């Protein structure tokens, strides 16, 4: 069986950054497996700007951002296989992939980095009543059809869900001459970045209906309209609040799901909130030598954070191959009081870096609240925030020298007054 030092599953922004970091850390045998016909992942269809401000200090489009990383892969001579589907990952780090030239191949890895990204929640997961007419797309599918393949998906559009892709597509459809009737959001707050609400909706006078959802799709062969209802605190439609919107297209932007079928096959432990692997501060899962990063770990708001996180995963995978295994005592991290989750979920104080960035999302919109950190019930950090929202990730830093006196068993991150 062929063996590679590190196998990266996924050639999007996370996979590219991890591969580059691993090569720069001294690993010569790194292989990227990518199912698409080019490197770059989802960024290739994100032709709007706003990428790279943190990483490159420049405002780039998605393809430009991806190109900077793919160029580095080429310059470093990192091999990759395109149009290659990974079919299985085993707990002893064997990877089975298939493509049209080699057929089915199984290879052994010294370490694996999971960087498969995420997928959109489809109509079937939403329980929307009505026929299955033409004109219903997830926002990402519509984005690819328009930006990569050159098709127009509709002329009069209704968007359900205010995730970032949905907001961006509201602007994109408008710029292409379509009429965007409205964006409806089930929750009482938007799921996207505030800058996208301003630049994609308010700048184009596109209304945003919070606490609303589609309760019926009209049309048998092509979408003819949707009925929208207000929802109560339990997110159930309120009778008598129905309103009809005429449209020929319905875009769904109702959440992203980390793509973890391969992770589950390998026996990786999955966090019930993030939908991604449980990892320690080195981004290693509960299977030694298997690391995770990017949107397969938890859905990020900025690709710059994906690249930063993936670089750390690549560096730690390289250390693992060289014999430096994260081990020793474990400190559990948990979110409470409005913090939905933390990544990582574990810190190993004996082998951790001098500082560890912990990222998380809050469960609601909070104004003039504080983020507090507790070690075994004793508060050690408190930072005031003017506003926090579920659509934007927050972060804190845990320092190793903070454990000089004693090592806690549990670190709690919470929202408080």
Notes on the structure:
This protein is an alpha/beta fold. The protein has three domains: 1-119 and 256-326, FAD/NAD(P)-binding domain, CATH 3.50.50; 122-254, 3-Layer(bba) Sandwich (FAD/NAD(P)-binding domain); 328-417, no CATH class. Helix content is 19%, strand content 33%. The chain contains seven helices and 26 strands. The chain has helices spanning 13-24, 62-75, 139-147, 164-175, 194-201, 261-266, 303-321; strands at residues 3-9, 30-33, 49-51, 60-61, 80-81, 85-89, 94-99, 103-114, 118-120, 136-138, 156-160, 179-185, 208-210, 212-218, 225-230, 243-246, 249-252, 256-258, 290-292, 331-336, 346-347, 355-360, 366-375, 378-388, 394-399, 410-416. The strands form seven sheets. Strands 1, 2, 5, 6, 7, 8 and 19 form a seven-stranded mixed β-sheet that branches. Strands 10-17-11-12-13 form a five-stranded parallel β-sheet. Strands 21-20-26-23-24 form a five-stranded mixed β-sheet, with no helix packed on it. Strand 3 (49-51) and strand 4 (60-61) form a beta hairpin. Helix 1 runs parallel beside helix 7.
